[in-house]
Amino acid sequence: MRSGDIETCKRALESMPVGPFYETLLGEFADRYSKEDLGASIEWLKGLPQEGHLQKGYSLIGRNAALDPVLAESFLRSVSDQGLKDEFSAGYLLGLSQQQDSRALKGLLADPQRIAALGLNQDIIFSSIVSGGASQTSVDQSLEIVGLLMQGGIVPKGSIGDSAIRQVATKDPAAAAAYLSANKELPNINRIAEPALEAWGNTSPIEAARWLESQEGTVRDAGAAGLAKAVARTEPQSAVVWAISITDPALRASTLNQIASRSKFEREQIRSIIQNAEFDQETKDSYLGIFK
């Protein structure tokens, strides 16, 4: 884009009434301008009134600004409007997470004081990196990024976080299992283990079972829940065996309920497995009630 073209576009935007078309044109111009001259595009962005229809421009320049984190973060500190700050930071984090060299992103995630100083919203950090960027990088890099987010406590509870983690954990379940083996002490590691083993159990249940037999603790419990759900339709008895091996009572009961809802089972065979398990009779009765 020649300098004359840049000035022409700026003048056109200045004379255009604010509205959806303005926002679209501003976004396209911001994207092209920031790719050619990031510093100048940021200075231009600073001069715009921080109100209405600037979201796309902030987001696209933020994404391209990932190539210069120092400049990007200096600008981010200067943005007073929280909505526009969120748009710019979402684009910036997405851009960082899509880079082949993940050192810049890792450096940011490992520095909670820097995150706080930039005023980054934790939900935006998570959604931009995991749902946006990490899903497009290599499996190993995606898992490492999710691990850093977990260490920093930047993982939303509930379905939003679980869905995004599942997206990463199921890309290559065997690779996820290798990551689990090397990072057993990671906070909330079960949130990777369960979807990874469920996906692995759907494609290679024997390999998944062999790996799971050598695990222990939280990883084994969550993995057993995932594998049990994977084989529930085809091998309900095996699924129940995996489920009753779970040491966490709440997860064990939840998994048994999911098996019952997913499979067509031989009632007496399942009841025999539960009766022979090493639980007190009250616990056995509660599990037998699941498979009526």
Number of helices, counting only DSSP H or I runs of 4 residues or more: 19
Query: Termini distance?
Result: 71 Å
Unreliable sequence segments: none
Average the pLDDT over all residues and give the rounded result. 88
Hey, roughly how much beta strand do the residues contain? under 5%
Helicity range: over 70%
> What is the overall silhouette?
elongated
From the alpha carbons, calculate the radius of gyration and give it in angstroms. Answer: 25 Å
Overall number of strands: 0
Description:
This protein has 292 residues and is mostly helical. The protein has a domain at 173-292. It contains 19 helices and no strands. The N and C termini lie far apart (71 Å). This is HEAT repeat domain-containing protein. It comes from Luteolibacter rhizosphaerae.
Please render the helix and strand layout as text:
Blueprint: H1 3-15, H2 20-36, H3 38-47, H4 55-64, H5 69-78, H6 82-97, H7 103-109, H8 112-118, H9 122-133, H10 139-151, H11 159-169, H12 173-182, H13 190-203, H14 205-213, H15 217-231, H16 236-244, H17 249-262, H18 267-275, H19 281-288
Helix pairs in contact: 2-3, 2-4, 3-4, 4-6, 6-9, 9-11, 11-13, 12-13, 13-14, 13-15, 14-15, 15-16, 15-17, 16-17, 16-18, 18-19
Characteristics of this structure?
292 residues; mainly alpha; 73% helix; elongated; HEAT repeat domain-containing protein
Short description:
With 292 residues, this protein is mainly α. The protein has 19 helices and no strands.
